[in-house]
Amino acid sequence: RAFGQFWQLFLNVLIGLTNGILSTITFALGPRLVPQEDRESAGALMVLALFFGISSGATVGWQFGSNHWFGA
Fold first, then answer.
1. Strand ranges (DSSP E) for the chain?
2. For the chain, which residues make up each domain, given as ranges?
3. What angle do CA 67, 69, 55 make, to 5 degrees?
4. Is 30 exposed, middle or buried (0-12, 13-18, 19+ CB in 10 A)?
5. How far is it, in rounded angstroms, from Cα 7 to Cα 15?
6. pLDDT at 71 exceeding the cut of 70
7. Can you list the GO cellular component terms from the UniProt entry (predicted)?
């Protein structure tokens, strides 16, 4: 049981670190891929997409947890 919890924690930390690194890189380099006059709009659109993704993921996760779908 403790060994399984270790792997769950390890994978959670690993996924969190890689997500943070990849998000930082894309948010730093993303606006550079568009013309200078559109960089501010591109950054705002990236933030909007990130917010929408986090919000929808949290909502779906809450629904799965509160309705006990898939045996959760």
1. none
2. 8-61
3. 70
4. middle
5. 12
6. no
7. membrane
Helix (H) or strand (E) holding 2: helix 2-29
Q: What are the tokens at 9?
A: 């924690």
pLDDT tens digits, one per residue of 2-27:
677 888 889 999 999 999 899 999 99
Residue range 25-67, pLDDT digits in tens:
999 999 999 999 999 999 999 999 999 999 999 998 888 776 6
**pTM, full prediction:** 0.68
Q: Six-digit token pair at 68?
A: 């006990």
Q: Which tokens in the block code for residue 50?
A: 């990130």
First-to-final CA distance of the chain: 18
